[in-house]
Amino acid sequence: MTDKSMIPIESYSAFINRKKLVLAISVVATAVIGLFAVSAGSLEIPASEIIKTLLGKGDPQTHTIIMNIRLPRVTAAILVGAILAVAGAVMQCVLQNPLASASTLGVSQGAAFGAALGIIVFGGGVVNSDSAATAVTINNPYIVTLCAFLCASISTLVIILLSQFKKDLGPAGLILAGVALGSLFGGGSTLLQYFADETKISAVVFWTFGNLGAADWPELLILTVVFFAALIYFLLNRWNFNAMESGADTAKSLGVNTRAVMLISMGISSLAAAVAVSFVGIISFVGLIAPHIMRRFVGNDYRFLIPCSAVIGALLLILADTFARLIIAPVILPIGAITSFLGAPMFLYLLFRGFKYHG
Amino acid sequence: MVEVRDITFAYNQNGNNIIEDINFAIEKNQCIAILGNNGAGKSTLLKCMDRICPAQKGTVYVDGQNVYTMSKNTMAQNIAYVLQNNESINMTVFDTILLGRKPYIKWDATSEDRHIAWSIMKKMQLEDFALRNVWQLSGGELQKVMLARALAQEPKLLLLDEPTSNLDPRNQHEVLQQVKEIAQEHDICVAIIIHDLNLAIRYCERFLLLQDAQVFAYGGLEVMTPENIEEVYRIHVHIIEHMGIPVVVPFPDEKVNVSGER
Question: What is the ipTM, given to two decimal places?
Answer without folding.
Answer: 0.86
